[in-house]
């Protein structure tokens, strides 16, 4: 009959170490269970009793005891295989990232964007360097390297040679003279048509607006003016854009400040705004025209206020005529000027600023914080 399996005689150091692991616990449950097994065997317990105590298989108990007898306390640490060996080297990962961020057409592929399936198939067909990787592993690799699937954006570089000087001037007057700065711009051609939007409704039964195929009403343009110091938005609807209408709008702005001190008007380079008549009138009446650079309309402070105008008056609308559309637009202007600090108005303005910045807003001609603080303090002073 074979001798029962049990641990050899423990040394003092081995016994103390095993007791320390059992008494203090261990971050590894494997070390703790193996130490308990060895102490139980050293105490004279047989393999079946130890297996029942530890709720383990008898062969596992015998294997731990045999390994201790051969290697000592080294048997407490599990020998893990480490999983499947890596198939991709760091150079291969760099090539995968470089390929994913390169337009497929530059690599001779007949499409304009990579999908995970197409990218994995292309990597497997690379001449002289085949990279075999599954779709999920490829997705995880790209995520780990900070590569995500994003929408393509378009923008225009400003070819204006005076771009920086114009932006500097706009920022200067906004910072130094906010109470005497006005922003002027034309807001889109306004046609009579149904415009989609959002509404509260039962599931699957939203409001339906009739489609307009024959548009016989023509278009109008909203000539808007924003007073930076007063945070006041106003304007008028015109049938067309032209020098005469722009000059009339600028004269109304000047008439609102008849004290003779200079005022500053920020506007774009539209031909209707840059005529000789407007320049002569501005020089004669102490009006400085601060033109935004070409393709840089984001520098005009009024642009952020056209977003709420579009969201609250045009979206989800079905105006029957231009007079009805104009009345709705001016009703919103009255409400907006009475609720300039309304959370929804401010949120819409922030959203519009973010949209405009994303086009090419490296520099933003926003109101300085000091001016905003003065504006918030002015109503309090007027109450006192």
Q: Would you kindly provide a written description of the structure presented here, covering whatever features stand out?
A:
The protein is of the alpha/beta class and 384 residues long. The chain is built from 14 helices and 5 strands. The protein has helices at 12-24, 29-42, 47-54, 58-71, 90-100, 116-124, 135-144, 163-176, 243-255, 276-284, 303-314, 322-338, 343-360, 369-383; strands at residues 181-191, 219-227, 232-238, 263-267, 287-291. Strands 3-2-1-4-5 form a 5-stranded mixed sheet, with helices on both faces. Strand 4 (263-267), helix 10 (276-284) and strand 5 (287-291) form a beta-alpha-beta unit.
Helix count, per DSSP? Answer: 14
As laid out across the biggest beta sheet, the strand order is: 3-2-1-4-5
Would you identify the regions where 5 or more consecutive residues have pLDDT less than 50? 360-384
What Rg, in angstroms, do the CA atoms define?
Answer: 38 Å
Through-space gap between termini? 107 Å
- Record field, number of beta strands: 5
Order of helices and strands: HHHHHHHHEEEHEHEHHHH
Mean pLDDT: 82
The general outline is elongated
Biggest sheet features: 5 strands, mixed
Helix-and-strand structural type: alpha/beta
Strand content: 5-15%
Summarize the amount of helix as a percent range. 40-55%
């Amino acid at each position: 009959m074979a001798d029962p399996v049990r641990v050899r005689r423990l040394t003092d150091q081995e016994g103390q170490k095993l007791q320390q692991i059992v008494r203090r616990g261990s971050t590894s449950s494997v070390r703790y269970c193996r130490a308990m097994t060895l102490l139980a065997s050293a105490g004279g317990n047989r393999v079946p009793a130890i297996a029942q105590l530890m709720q383990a298989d008898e062969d596992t108990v015998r294997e731990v005891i045999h390994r201790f007898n051969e290697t000592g306390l080294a048997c407490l640490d599990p020998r893990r295989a480490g999983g499947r060996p890596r198939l991709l080297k760091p150079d291969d990962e760099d090539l995968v990232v470089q390929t994913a961020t390169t337009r497929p057409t530059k690599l001779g592929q007949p499409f304009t964007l990579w999908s995970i399936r197409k990218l994995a198939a292309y990597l497997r067909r690379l001449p002289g360097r085949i990279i075999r990787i599954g779709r999920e592993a490829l997705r995880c690799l790209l995520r780990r390297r900070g590569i995500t699937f994003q929408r393509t954006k378009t923008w225009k570089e400003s070819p204006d040679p005076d771009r920086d000087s114009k932006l500097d001037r706009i920022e200067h007057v906004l910072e130094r003279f906010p109470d005497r700065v006005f922003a002027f711009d034309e807001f889109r051609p306004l046609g009579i048509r149904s415009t989609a939007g959002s509404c509260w409704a039962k599931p699957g039964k939203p409001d339906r607006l009739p489609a307009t195929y024959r548009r016989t009403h023509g278009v109008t343009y909203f000539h808007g003016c924003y007073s930076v110091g007063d945070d006041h938005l106003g304007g008028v609807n015109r049938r067309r854009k032209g020098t005469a209408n722009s000059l009339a709008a600028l004269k109304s702005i000047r008439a609102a400040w008849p004290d003779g001190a200079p005022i500053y008007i920020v506007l774009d380079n539209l031909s209707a705004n840059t005529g000789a008549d407007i320049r002569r009138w501005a020089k004669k009446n102490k009006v400085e025209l601060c033109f935004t650079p070409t393709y840089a309309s984001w520098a005009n402070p009024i642009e952020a206020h056209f977003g709420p105008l579009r969201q609250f008056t045009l979206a989800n609308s079905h105006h029957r005529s231009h007079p009805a559309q104009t009345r709705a637009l001016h009703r919103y202007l009255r409400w907006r000027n009475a609720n300039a600090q309304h959370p929804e108005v401010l949120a819409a303005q922030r959203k519009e600023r973010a949209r405009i910045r994303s086009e090419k807003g490296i520099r933003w001609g926003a109101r300085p914080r000091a001016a905003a603080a003065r504006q918030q303090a002015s109503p309090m002073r007027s109450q006192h």
